[in-house]
Amino acid sequence: MVLPQADGLSLNSIPSFVKEHHGSHKTYVPVSTLIEWTSSRYSSHVYVYDLATAVGFGKLTEKWALENKGIHVIPSQSRSGAGLSIAGRLSGGSSDDTSLKSILTTYTTPIGLSQMAHALSILPVPTTSGRLVLQVPNVSVVGEALTLSPSLGHISASLASLPESILVILSSTPQEALNIASLSYRISDYHVIHIFDHHSSTRENHHVVVPSENADDKVTFEDALKDEGYGFFDYAGDNDAETVVVLLNSPLAGAALKLATQFPGLGVVSVRVLKPWSADALLAILPKTVRHVHVLDEVLAETFGGSLYPEVFSSFWGAEERIQPDIHEHRVAPARLRQLLSHPSTLTELLAGFAPVQPKVSPTLDEALVKKLLFFSSPASHLSSLPLLITKTFTNSRTIETRHLIDFDAYSKPGGIAADRVTIAPHSDVHNPVALPILLPITDESLGYSDCLVILDQSLLKTHSVLEHVKAKKPVLILTSWTPEEILSNLPKQSLELLLSRSSRVYIVDPKAVASSLSGSNPSNALDLEVVVAYLGFSRLYFGSGASQTLLKTLAQNVFGDSVGGVALEELVSKSWDSLAEVPIPGEGDSLFTNASDSNELKGFEFNSITPPENAPAQSVQASVESWHIAAKHLLFPEAYAPIAQNPEKAEEYSQQAELRPEVPERTFLVTCTVNRRLTPLEYDRNVFHLEFDTSNTGLKYAIGEALGVHGWNDDEDVLDFCRWYGVDPNQIITLPLAEGGGKVMHSRTVFQALQQQIDIFGKPPKSFYAALAEHSTSREDRMALLFIAAPEGAGTFKKLSETETVTFADVLQRFKSARPDIAKLCELVGDIKPRHYSIASAQDAVGDRVDLLVVTVDWVLPSGSPRYGQCTRYLAGLKVGQKVTVSIKPSVMKLPPSHEQPIIMAGLGTGAAPFRAFMQYRAWLSAQGTPVGPLLYYFGSRHRSEEYLYGEEIEAYITDGVITHAGLAFSRDGKKKVYIQHKMREDAESLVKMLAKDRGVFYLCGPTWPVPDVFEALVGALVEYQGKTVEEAGEYLESLKEEERYVLEVY
Ligand SMILES: Cc1cc2nc3c(=O)[nH]c(=O)nc-3n(C[C@H](O)[C@H](O)[C@H](O)COP(=O)(O)OP(=O)(O)OC[C@H]3O[C@@H](n4cnc5c(N)ncnc54)[C@H](O)[C@@H]3O)c2cc1C
């Protein structure tokens, strides 16, 4: 069962998707996807800033740009002074973009906006063919817990110095965000900054009407706004209001507008267009009766002024026909905003404090008929698709409206937690929906706002305060393998008390057990069946006393059809019905209560990540430091623990020696080093060396051009050093899971072996490592620093650590001394050393049981001045003759053409010579067998002939023998003038063209990436000169050769 996900939409599917849904039709794709699509469509270039992608906005555009040449993305980094190149591009007059009638778009966040302040202040006047649109997803990290917030505090700082030519417009609901994003490309008279609510609205799956295609004719901003039915401001409340509250268009404003209608004498104004500020429009929308104005300004801290108060204040100057009201400023810092949004009663209290008269009935944001559902799950679990599935059940309904929003807490549990909010309501109130996090807050010490709570990960009951999120007397469904007794004995006392005090009804169902009882001989369907069982369990509770097996069957039939995985729906419904059980909650006198633990500090859910945590570890896989007898079991009964044969039918003469590198999923071979010879002089700064390995009796076979995967080891001394300062015994036995073993297959080794051969402890840590390590830190400073580095706001620090200081996992542990996971956990957090690939420099037909490599050591100097070495090249450089090495084979693009007589043209720098040596050996071998072979051109470049003419003697011999028909050798530093391979290729332009265009030759480039454009240009030049093509035609021709596998690049 595949659920349609926004991320899965390819560029090609979007236009038809939108075509299908525009006009009166509706879609359930998150609006952020549609904003990206609109922006990609109407912009000549999209500048995607890293801060935007860090909050989940821009990745799709980058993906689409790879699929479609018409979309141009410029990945950009956020830093002070950002955006100058955009300003330059728009000012450039004669740039390509101007001729393309360009609208440039930038994706950035409010913080990114402030970094662009200077660039924005020097933008040229907007024209129909030169404008900038900034799409700004508003969500920012606040507070010590690094929670994501919809605070508009950052905006104020960015707006102070904007020129008149920039329009600043805010949207808060999904539909409005889409309409305004689209409108931004229809107008001609302003650059646009569109700030939309990415904390929830644009990430929601919500019915929206897709706007029709933008016409080519440009209109003024005011006309476009009117066409859409929007004004500069929105007003709600009493038409004769005495008191008015003004705030920026945001989730808070949406909720305030809704409450305003319930207070006599009160009105609320939401500001949609912040710049150009229209005092006239504000005065026009306000009742003449207004005597008091309260401005709620969102700020970063209460000591900072906001952007709204000065505008509102100045609007009343000179407004003669009205009485001057008193104007009050209220600064709303993120902590206060959080309180207002997550405890709806505090917002009501705030408005009540302003209102001249108190209402008779307590104002509320709730609609009687809206059902609010909340789901907690592990993001990596397949059952986590349940909420979206429930939402999609009603997608086509004309009478029911569903909304869905997913938030992640990446830090409070390894692998993270997902919280899905779903609302189901009659089709009404579509235009101004209150943001889901306000309708259904997830907050500590919650009063319970959901009508049904579903817990998809039973372990959360022991660690997190999930049960408090359900309303009194409402059902809780737990998908669990525990019995009712086990559920109760796993609950701490505070949870039992809560359930009792709220008279909650707790139900359980075990989807796994039901699915496996039904999947019979076809266990591959079990996962699908589990989802259906969960769906049925939920539906039964949702419909309560109205539920019947017939109803559930009808409902499920619309979603799943008549059967799932070969099991009839009827049977599934009946089994699921029977297996749902109620958990009897004991009274306070019960022994369960007395025995329940009360020391357990349950954690709350914090929304701190928009995407699921990276590399969420699979649930069941856990490393452990084992007692000796468990380790002994692994050693004594290896067949029970060793990796499952990948392909038993392909049993080979030389089988996989799993016990050597059991954690490596691919087929490995243990080869023996027979030669390790340095090719460059000792005093030369680059160590390029030649390796030969004996492959006899290993079964290793390779084709010309393939690469060897080398599973290198870490340095012994470094490992022992690490063990010493980490305080772990290197001889301790450790049991580790196999990546491919589904968590069931483990293997044992000493800590020293694990760190030397498997665990990438001296490798480069990803962001997720910092987040995971924070969990293990006992000092608050360390924890905050680690979480900061992992958060979007820490992008700069992470970059510095990663790119400038090139820290390793071990370095991070050195820095954050309070974070000391035990060694088994650490191995799990760090992960395995990845094999490095090396082009094979020999032809097996020519050399027999041997494989050769050509390697250059990688090293660099740290800012501290100490040297650092590449993991694998250091290992290879230190290999002694006789030493065994674990290798695997990697297929490659470097394939010889089908006919031996087709010309081959090879160009390489440095170690790029490796596969070409194999090509030459093979052609020489073919010739020796009497097989006719075609021409072979060899271009090779390095700095000095005397030091880096790699395999020089062999090459000269091949030239003499005619295996190489022509060589273009470029030693860049030997002469006064620098000569590179592209210069040599230009000298041979005519014959290169003949070989490529007439004789179906194949061109190969291998080695470092930097000569790629020069070589391409040299070939384009040759085709222009000798084939009469234009530059574009020549470029397209070379592109077509790539398709034919006649222009082959292997660069690294
Ligand atoms: C198909 C293919 C064929 C190849 N053929 C050859 C060949 O024939 N000969 C050859 O010599 N190479 C070849 N390579 C390159 C080779 O695979 C390795 O990338 C190279 O040898 C470096 O590996 P290493 O383990 O020594 O360095 P690594 O440890 O992987 O380091 C590589 C780079 O990563 C960065 N880095 C490392 N650690 C950190 C850190 N902690 N923080 C931040 N940055 C870090 C550094 O910039 C460093 O330069 C080939 C690559 C491919 C993909």
From TrEMBL:
Co-factor requirement: FMN; FAD
Pathway linked to the protein: Sulfur metabolism; hydrogen sulfide biosynthesis; hydrogen sulfide from sulfite (NADPH route): step 1/1
Enzyme class: oxidoreductase
One annotated GO molecular function: flavin adenine dinucleotide binding
Signal peptide region: none
Swiss-Prot/TrEMBL keywords: Electron transport, FAD, Flavoprotein, FMN, NADP, Oxidoreductase, Transport
CDD domains: CyPoR_like (cd06207)
Pfam families: FAD_binding_1, NAD_binding_1
PROSITE patterns per record: FAD_FR
EC number(s) on file: 1.8.1.2
Domain of life: Eukaryota
GO cellular component entries: cytosol
Sequence ranges assigned to domain FAD-binding FR-type in this UniProt record: 666-898
InterPro entries assigned: CysJ-like_FAD-binding, FAD-bd_FR_type, Flavoprot_Pyr_Nucl_cyt_Rdtase, FNR_nucleotide-bd, NADPH_Cyt_P450_Rdtase_alpha, OxRdtase_FAD/NAD-bd, Pyrv_flavodox_OxRed_cen, Riboflavin_synthase-like_b-brl
Function: This enzyme catalyzes the 6-electron reduction of sulfite to sulfide. This is one of several activities required for the biosynthesis of L-cysteine from sulfate.
Protein name, as recorded: assimilatory sulfite reductase (NADPH)
Organism the protein comes from: Sistotremastrum niveocremeum HHB9708
